[in-house]
Amino acid sequence: MSNFLVSNPNPNNSFEVGQPPNDSVSSLSFSPKANFLVATSWDSQVRCWEITRGGTSLASMPRASILHDQPVLCSTWKDDGTTVFSGGCDKQVKMWPLISGGQPVTVAMHDAPIKEVAWVPEMNLLVTGSWDKTLKYWDTRQSNPVHTQQLPDRCYALTVRHPLMVVGTADRNLVVFNLQNPQAKTFELRLEESIVGNGFKAIERIQVIMRSIVSGSQMVTMITG
């Protein structure tokens, strides 16, 4: 009798959430206060599940969902865990008071799809990055942005660790902002093609630059490839 090696189709004991999206998932975001998971999708929906654990098993319970006019690309939670912000190809950000069961309202607009969104609790502001090559800061109680920052190209990535914010754009640009003075860029870096092709070298270069910024060193404003 022949012995056959049978591969484990689920080595990590993963499970699929109930009522998953009908198209590609574009972003995932866990609540900072509870076991609520939000996913955005190219099917134009934002969905929320409650994730529970019973012993060694996990379960998911669909809680709510909202609809955008076009595919949704990004999401983030407010720091108190009550509200979700989502943005996408309809060029708007919706503020969804999920926990209270309220209806979503539009709180931000761009001239092109919105790729990234971040809530900055230290400033009580929402930051949005778009393919219209701008970064905007929003007080969600007002209809107009409190500040608009031009970017070198289309925004594709954004992360915040206050007081620093790093934005990645098309054409290999990284832009760092000191949020204590958001109108002024701390520095702008364009990664050389040789570095982009070498992941470890790129990470090493970025780490050196970030350490210099944190320590207060003055940096060259731009490095070109």
Automatic annotation (TrEMBL):
Keyword terms of this UniProt record: Repeat, WD repeat
Annotated WD repeat ranges: 22-59, 68-106, 107-148
One Pfam family here: WD40
SUPFAM superfamilies given in the database record: WD40 repeat-like
Region (Disordered): 1-22
PANTHER family tied to this protein: MRNA EXPORT FACTOR AND BUB3
Protein name in the entry: Protein RAE1
Species name: Quercus lobata (Valley oak)
